[in-house]
Amino acid sequence: MTMQWLLLLLCPIMMIFMMRGMHSGSHNEKDDEQLKQDLENLKEQNDILSSELSYLKSRLK
Q: What's the CA gap between 56 and 48, in Å, rounded?
């Protein structure tokens, strides 16, 4: 009997924690802009590294 009550109470408690986790995972427009800026920076770094790699490969030939 005690186990049934425990299971009955466990379900709503788990739902409260799951809903809280869903809401805390959201982000705002400022975060989106920062992610876009970070992505642009990474693309620029990738282009630079690709150019350097091409240059080094051409020097080895």
A: 12
